[in-house]
Design a protein that fits this description.
six-stranded parallel sheet, binds iron/sulfur cluster, globular, three-stranded parallel sheet, single chain, Transcription Regulator spoIIAA, Rossmann fold, alpha/beta, 3 domains
Length: 389
């Protein structure tokens, strides 16, 4: 019996990439078994992220380091997937001729065929075409390979919002929602396999289903209610959301669905309306705070987390102080915070008044210091019984 070959996957970036790596591992499971030892691998997949310059550099340096490995083992298959692969395409092959495959997020389902083809043709291949008619194929995850109780379930891909700092609409395309019946089949399959908690994934889950015909459309709140009916599932989570698309129906779910965990990740990015406008976030701070207040009415103990960017082109010290004032007002349980970095072809790359690196770093340090203090204060509330689980 043919010995299975060994597959090593290095995943950078978000939970969508984690889920895509699980899918790729499963798609290749007939011929490959996973290994944690990169030097033992017969095939290596580098699942890349391009949300910030740093993430892209990390992926390129790992791919670069594999040049030596390929010399030692010419039959080794090296594949680059994810958002940098989508963004770079054929450029990556010419820059890194030792890489066999460059595959975009929409094309990972062709992986087994592409593995065969690159070996048959003996040359590098690129699969990054993004098609409007793309549909995420129905896919039942393996129960054995993955966390026994908690799983990610991708419900959609892409984003239509075009925030001016963001590369996602260019690397993951327009919003494409999976059919509700495919998602429910996957959750039922996981529940039957003993999984208790599912996290529904998308770049902007709040607009789930908007690309489906109105007559047969299932919105995100309705999908959550259907998932909550599935026996065996005890906890439901989801990420991530653009506040502009946050509906009352969705907020009401936090009051009515016991299985929905009382946590909402609601990226605000900045506390300044001037900056939000230039980011094309489509909401004002007043609008955002109204939604936070409504959420807390529906679910008083809800934990709120967020994403924040400092140093966006043209951000004045007053704008930054508005962000500092916002975190005092909302008092997030935790937050991801970053220095702005150019992500071509996102529009903000051409905006005037870039903030000097030192000033970005100073603002980030001040922000993170206060965020950490607030997180500790929030956690102490659970110790002193101010919040009950
Ligand atoms: S909503 Fe999120 S994923 Fe979509 S463009 Fe804006 S930041 Fe990017």
């Amino acid at each position: 019996m043919n010995q299975k070959k060994l597959l090593y996957i290095e995943t950078f970036g978000c939970q969508m990439n984690d889920r895509d790596s699980e899918i790729m591992r499963q798609l290749l499971a007939n011929a490959f078994e996973p290994t944690e030892l990169i030097n033992d691998a017969d095939a290596i997949i580098v699942n890349t992220c391009s949300i910030r310059g740093k993430a892209e550099q990390k992926a390129y340096s790992l791919l670069g380091a594999l040049r030596k490995r390929k010399k030692e083992k010419p039959e080794l298959i090296i594949a680059a997937t994810g958002c940098v692969a989508q963004q770079e395409g054929a450029k990556m092959l010419s820059r890194m001729p030792h890489v066999n495959l460059v595959i975009g997020p929409q094309n990972i389902y062709q992986l087994p065929d592409l593995f065969v083809e690159t070996q048959r043709q003996g040359k590098g291949l690129v699969a990054t075409e993004m098609v409007k008619s793309f549909r995420i194929p129905p896919f039942l995850p393996s129960i054995q390979d993955g966390h026994p109780y908690k799983r990610f379930v991708t419900i959609m891909q892409g984003c239509n919002n075009f925030c001016t700092y963001c590369i996602v609409p260019f690397t993951r395309g327009r919003e494409i929602s999976r059919k509700p019946e495919d998602i429910l089949a996957e959750v039922n399959h996981l529940a039957a396999g003993g999984v208790k908690e599912v996290t529904l994934l998308g770049q902007n889950v709040n607009s789930y289903g908007n690309d489906h015909p109105v007559a047969s459309r299932t919105g995100f709140a309705a999908l959550l209610r259907k998932v909550a009916e599935i026996k065996g599932i005890e906890r439901i989570r989801f990420t991530t959301s653009n506040p502009n698309d946050l509906s009352l129906e969705l907020m009401r779910c936090f009051a009515e669905l016991d299985k929905l965990c009382p946590h909402f990740h609601l990226p605000v990015q900045s506390g300044s309306n001037t900056v939000l406008k230039r980011m094309n976030r489509k909401y004002t701070i007043e609008h955002y705070l109204e939604k936070v207040a409504t959420l807390r009415e529906f679910c008083p103990g809800i934990a709120l987390t967020t994403d924040l960017i400092v140093g966006f082109p043209g951000e004045t010290d007053m704008d930054f102080q508005a962000t500092m004032a916002l975190i005092e007002q909302v008092r997030y349980h935790s937050a991801f915070s970053f220095k702005y970095s150019n992500r071509p072809p996102a529009r903000a790359c051409d905006f005037p008044d870039p903030i000097p690196r030192e000033e970005k770093e100073r603002r980030l340090a001040v922000l993170q210091q206060r965020l950490q203090e607030i997180t500790l204060e929030r956690n102490m509330e659970y110790i002193h019984g101010i919040h009950r689980f």
